[in-house]
Amino acid sequence: MTHKKRVTLQDVANHAGVSRATASLIVRGSSKIAEKTKQKVLNSMHELGYVYDRVAANMRSQSSSTVGLIITDIANPFYAELLRGVHHSLEEAGYTVFLGTTFDSDMKQEQLISRMLEHRVGGIILCPVSESSGNSIERVKAIDIPLVLAVREIENVSCDYVGIDYAVGAQMAVNHLIHRGHRRIAFLGGTSHSTAWKERRSGYCSALKQAGLDIDETLIVESPVTREGGMGAIRKVLFQANPPTAVFCFNDLVAHGVMLGLNDAGLKPGQDLAVVGFDNNNEAPLYNPPLTTVSSYARLIGSQAAILLHQRIVNQERDTQRIILQPELVVRKSS
Amino acid sequence: MTHKKRVTLQDVANHAGVSRATASLIVRGSSKIAEKTKQKVLNSMHELGYVYDRVAANMRSQSSSTVGLIITDIANPFYAELLRGVHHSLEEAGYTVFLGTTFDSDMKQEQLISRMLEHRVGGIILCPVSESSGNSIERVKAIDIPLVLAVREIENVSCDYVGIDYAVGAQMAVNHLIHRGHRRIAFLGGTSHSTAWKERRSGYCSALKQAGLDIDETLIVESPVTREGGMGAIRKVLFQANPPTAVFCFNDLVAHGVMLGLNDAGLKPGQDLAVVGFDNNNEAPLYNPPLTTVSSYARLIGSQAAILLHQRIVNQERDTQRIILQPELVVRKSS
DNA sequence: CTGAAAGCGCTTACAG
DNA sequence: CTGAAAGCGCTTACAG
Questions:
Q1: Looking at A225-239, A260-274, B23-37, which range is the least confident one?
Q2: Which of B25, B31, B123, B169 is the most exposed place for a label (fewest CB within 10 A)?
Q3: Chain A residues close to B146, C-beta within 8 Å
Q4: Cβ(A99)–Cβ(A69) under 8 Å?
Q5: Which stretches are transmembrane (chains A, B) (predicted)?
Q6: What is the model's pLDDT at position B204?
Q7: Cα(B90)–Cα(B303) distance, rounded to whole angstroms?
Q8: Cβ separation B117–A51 shorter than 8 A
């Protein structure tokens, strides 16, 4: 592989017999250039194999055409969908996106933020880890470029945010179970430090209270937000003296784990025990049985976050926006 | 949001009372600096909130700390896993990764490549679209920075490659079905222009031939590589005069679609008709019934590609490498 | 449209 | 360790 020297705008200008300033205008799509000159220069670019150096341009003009997206785990279909939304909106607007995955590690999140800032991203969309340490909250606060939080908020950090109303979603799910006659309903999965969990819990509790049911703390079990987490959580709750007849899960992933755990125990989800998830992943209708769940519009959250970020980049002064999408219950066979 | 002026290395040097050259050495982790000076400078950096400008540094030193990863669709768990592998290896090595998704569009692929080159990526890992046009092949050939192809090769493009032996994998899958007594085995999904499809087909055919079975072209149906594609493909093959008793699918996603299609038709996958997939996604064991499939080591392909790219960046002169992983059959209840 | 100069924030190379 | 200069590939601003 031979290493060619990079072709510069000066080379192009020389080749086309124009000044560098003119070439620069053309590469940026200025309309003030005579069509004939423009074609001449474009031909030269093509001939020389010129590649515009956006990095140099951004540096000189103190701008940026990149954006950072930080999520917790791409293996979670929720985030895969969110990423789709972000990419769709952002690439259309001409940004190139850096992707970082934290695997819910606080430290990793800090590293990624630093890395992206060092790379002069124009803004960051951050889906925070579920438990932000004090350090990492300070880190986020110290970000002095456009920042949009998605999915989870961080306490005491005020900036643009897109998420859904988890409390309402949880309430819908639990109400549904109550209407089906269930009185012992567990809430499984997630970690109590995250706002996303607290909100779900609050919705879960309101629904129970409204129905005149007591809250039984033994029916609330935290777990990692994975299939494995769900399998573990259902086990803990299944073998107690007075087991639940229905389960509201932190998300579909956990719900899937719960179903697998039930199968292991010889129980049929949807028949022996009702299961409701949260997210409405692409896979939810395909589970066995198809999963009743709350749609959390991952794709929409992503594209809204992207739009918010773009607007913030364009205008730093505008008021902070909070977009809270309303969830929707999708009833299937698991409940 | 107030817009602070960026703190430069010069500012840090002034604050710490050293020269810019010294500060530069320290920020790059040189060991030739007295510990005391170093601490003084690091303190100043912290105090001023200095953010290293990697973009400027890379530009001056004609290097790069970014890498581009181009995949077809993040909603395919195979690519989600591959991405995990890439990120793991690459972030460890200090790169920040640009992600682009083509959705199997040739044009999008060209755009993404151009964008990434304009952003001075140090190298690209490309999972090519399934049907590369002449134009886009030329585009790929014209890439004059380190390039690693993954998952699919492109004809007449010679560069580092990581993939698995699809032919062998397909053969294993079909052999397995033959041993279970099946004689009419369909091959569903994928598009015939991709090498990944051709190789699978070749493995499918060899297995049939070895067993003395004829190849029936009506049992080979192409489709998009999605669940929907699988649902469509099984429909086409199910209602013919002499339907198959087993199906080998392009991948797990297609297989899942096939299962859903069977359910729709009132048939039970694994009982009325055997189904085998390809990839061994995280979800494969969780399908109903659990899916027999060929493991394609997505994660490993990703991390190997990352390693290859890193090596190529470090040493442009080394010989082209081709890493072909050997697949493995994972037998579950669907066959 | 041209031309010459300055600057974005770094690294490089070198004399001291 | 310092200091001064040059340069990475662009854009900006301005006089002509």
A1: B23-37
A2: B31
A3: 1
A4: yes
A5: none
A6: 98
A7: 8
A8: yes
Q: Tell me which chain A residues have a C-beta less than 8 angstroms from the C-beta of B55.
A: 55, 58-59, 118-120
Query: Nearest residue of B to residue A261 by CA position?
Result: B286
Q: What is the largest CA-CA distance in chain B?
A: 87
- pLDDT over threshold 70, residue B162: yes
Mean pLDDT of B16-25: 87
Residue type present at position A38: K
DSSP 3-state assignment of B334? coil
d(CA B230, CA B228): 5
Confidence check: pLDDT of B186 > 50: yes
Distance, in angstroms, between A214 CA and closest chain B CA? Answer: 35
Q: Which domains does chain B show, CATH number per domain?
A: 9-52 (1.10.260.40), 66-164+298-327 (3.40.50.2300), 166-296 (3.40.50.2300)
CB-based contact A98 B101, cutoff 8 Å: no
**In this complex, which of B56, B65, B119 lies closest to A54 when CB atoms are compared?**
B119
Binning pLDDT at 50, 70 and 90, where does residue B194 land? confident
Collect all residues with Cβ–Cβ distance below 8 Å to A61 and sequence separation of at least 6: none
Nearest 5°: the CA angle B318, B322, B328 is: 150
Length of chain B, please?
335
The greatest distance separating any two alpha carbons of chain A, rounded to the nearest whole angstrom, comes to: 87
Q: How many CB atoms lie within 10 A of CB B324?
A: 12
Q: Amino acid identity of A6? A: R
- Interface contact flag, B56 A51, Cβ < 8 Å: no
Nearest chain A residue to B253 by CA distance is: A283
A170-185 burial code (b ≥16 CB/10 A, e <16): bbbbbbbbbeeebebb
More confident residue, B155 or A201: A201
Q: How far apart are CA B269 and CA B291, in angstroms?
A: 9
Distance CA B131, CA B112 (A): 16
User: Amino acid identity, residue B49?
Assistant: G
Q: Would strands B124-126 and B246-249 be described as parallel, antiparallel, or unpaired?
A: unpaired
Provide, in whole angstroms, the distance separating residue B134's CA from nucleotide D7's C1'. 39
- Nearest CA among A335, A251, A259, A333 for reference residue A296: A251
Q: What is the pLDDT of residue A2?
A: 36
Residue A68 has pLDDT above 50, yes or no: yes
Asked whether the beta carbons of A230 and A253 are under 8 A apart, the reply is: yes
pLDDT given at position A4: 58
Decide: A275 and A247 in contact? Cβ < 8 Å.
Answer: yes
